[in-house]
Amino acid sequence: MQLSSCRKVGLALVVTLTVVVTGCSDDPDEPTAAPIAQIASDRQTVPAENGIDQLTPDEVLAAAIANLDDAGTYRVSGTTSAGSTIDISFKTGAGSVGSVTTDSEVTLVASDGVVYITSDVETIANIVGADVDDTIAEKWLLIPEESSSSFRIFAEGSDFAEAVLGSQVQGELTAVQDVGGVPAVGLVFSESGGTLWVSATGEALPLRFEEKGASGGSGVLTFSDFGDDVDVSPPDEDDVIDPSTLPEESDDGGDESGEGDGED
């Protein structure tokens, strides 16, 4: 039971992050207004100093992802239009640390390909079973290795960028705009309507992602803290619970260990 629950939680977190960044939606009533007029200045600036505006959309995306790798570390933070929040710092090739919040906040650490999560007792108890909630108070839950494919999006910076942004794009580029005081080119994704803003000066790093219809800071993710120190040390072993070591629980709430099941 515990392993199955962990896989479900892992999938839910993956979906949350993917939707956050790609801004995909099947809602036909979703606002269609471009967020540029609401969030970025509509004043066009001079051509991009780094020449990013002369590239194709695929080349801009590839450059942004490559420069994230070269930066070594970066942070993604913001709030989706649906109200979910993300604040995660990634270290390329090493791991990540931060939190994702939907109904409740889930804190995570990924180190050397292993993901650990923690939350309030009620949330974690729902993952491993309410009968062990006293055991998991203030503990970290180790995500089973066999679930690592679902959690690969959290494992480290390169995997996250490629998973949520992809390697190819159908879309177009905007003219250079002022985005938060920085000249940037917008890469508009045709399928989702979202816009990835990439710096038009210095290294072509992603600055911000805006969901379709973003406004007032909602539906906006910010990329920042490039090259800053990020500590992705795993939790102390004494603070980690491996769900595979917990007693299995049957569908009727009983213990599946087999004790007490025999006949006299």
Average pLDDT, to the nearest integer? Answer: 77
Number of domains: 1
Q: What's the β-strand tally?
A: 12
The CATH class: Mainly Beta
Number of helices: 7
CATH fold-level name: outer membrane lipoprotein receptor (LolB), chain A
Q: What percent of the residues sit in helical stretches (DSSP H or I)?
A: 10-25%
**Could you say which overall geometry the principal axes of the C-alpha atoms support?**
elongated
Portion of residues in beta strands equals: 25-35%
Oligomer: single chain
Low-confidence stretches: 1-13, 20-42
Order of helices and strands: HHHEEEEEHHEHHEEEEEE
At CATH level 2, the architecture is: Clam
Task: Determine Rg (CA atoms, Å).
Answer: 21 Å
- Please summarize the sheet with the most strands: 12 strands, mixed
| Spatial ordering of strands, largest sheet | 7-8-9-10-11-1-2-3-4-5-6-12
Structural class: alpha+beta
Distance between the termini: 28 Å
